[in-house]
Predict the structure.
Amino acid sequence: NYRQFSDAQFDLLAVGFIVSFLMALVAIKALLGYVKHHTFVAFGIYRIVVAIAFAIWAL
């Protein structure tokens, strides 16, 4: 319930939203810059290895 928050907590919540939004923009810009100069081959290999490891762990 929003009535349980104090003004200071709303300020912290607002700062958290703003900081997380700005960091998301930085991360997206960095990822797009990486994709312009590299391929997704390393990412694909990483995902396959993680999927195999998870499948082995799940069994």
In short: The chain has one domain: 2-58. Residues 44 and 51 are 11 Å apart (CA to CA). The first helix runs from residue 7 to 37.
